[in-house]
UniProtKB/TrEMBL annotation:
One of its GO terms (molecular function) is thiamine pyrophosphate binding. Residues 9-64 form the DUF1858 domain. It comes from Iocasia fonsfrigidae. GO terms for biological process: thiamine transport. GO terms for cellular component: outer membrane-bounded periplasmic space. The keyword Signal applies. Gene3D superfamilies: Periplasmic binding protein-like II, SP0561-like. Keywords: Signal. It comes from the Bacteria. This is DUF1858 domain-containing protein.
Amino acid sequence: MENRYFSIEESLADISGKYPELIALLVNKGFAQLKDEKKRKELGRGISLKQAVELKGLNLEKLVKLMIKEIETKDDRTDITVIEKNGAGDLRVEGLLPCPVRLPLLERLETATANMSSPVSLELKAASQGLGWLKDKLSAGIEAKDLADIFISAGFDLFFDRNLMEGFRQQGVFKDSTGINELNSVFKDTGVDLLDPVGDYAVLAVVPAVFLINRAELAGRRIPHSWEDILSGEFKESVSLPVSDFDLFNAILLNIYHQYGREGVKKLAVSLLKSQHPSQMIQQGGRKQSGEAAVTIMPYFFTRMAERFPHLEFIWPEDGAIISPIFMLIKEDSLPAVQPLVDFFASEEVAEILAGQGLFPSVLPGIDNGLDREAGFMWPGWDFLRNENPGRIIDKLTKEFNNHLKGVG
């Protein structure tokens, strides 16, 4: 059973903080201190799950399986509760939510929709499930009137593919009604303009791709501090890439292409040692296995789990963390009925969850994203996204990347 949720090296406090549904299970397994919030914070942070299980003489593998099952059962229960309650809704919200923040957002959404005058249907799946189900819907030739009222997801391919959302956008279907007309200082100070000049797309936050360095695998090489360093050839077959994280990997391909052309995509393929989920890397990195990647490209969120390992070092790229924006598209014909939902997603409450729990920097002014002033971002810009066809480009780049891995081309 694949564990995409937590690392066994994370503390009990961190794991139970992200997944409160695990508290009862862990208490039942002998960790009675977790029942009390104060003790949970005091005791839980000082011990990892692995250490705690060893102290109790429990079977780690079996407990992890139980924990994953409980998380996924809660995940399913949350979806069923929300969708069944509003299943015949007049207003529809569809898309993906990042895994670290999905449950708290769904719980608050259930409260937010309870008092709305119109019923609401929510189909917001975990980002790990990918957008295939939504692309299939849109590729079936539906008309604008059949679209959901709000779409939310990270990534470029769905929103800028001219055969999908971009085609509807060009028909004037969408309008940004968030009222966000000024950016958070982390974007404003670094010259990254995420405000759509045409007023169609809204951006709520971003998923940054950063570096985690395994110093035990550097073999005398200097620590890379930029994407240019990664592509230099010095890290041939030494990099782990989040290939299975489609939104982020597509953003990496698109930005590398925009910055360095097709030659950059080829060099990126040459650097690949393995495709690995960040949580797997952290578990293996924690055991200091040899033959691991010297550099792992991962969402900023996962660096939080690596802080306890002295041989792992987090680097924010000097030329900017490549970002996969979390977009929101609002159907103009659905306004003003859908505006309360728009206001919810554009609220400080949601921004705090995104920035605080997910480490997804929020665009909302005044939110503390916890980043240094010099932390920059890399993204292709609105002109590129509108003048090119990112959906088609991503398809071509994916094929080229895979061909280079096979030694073709």
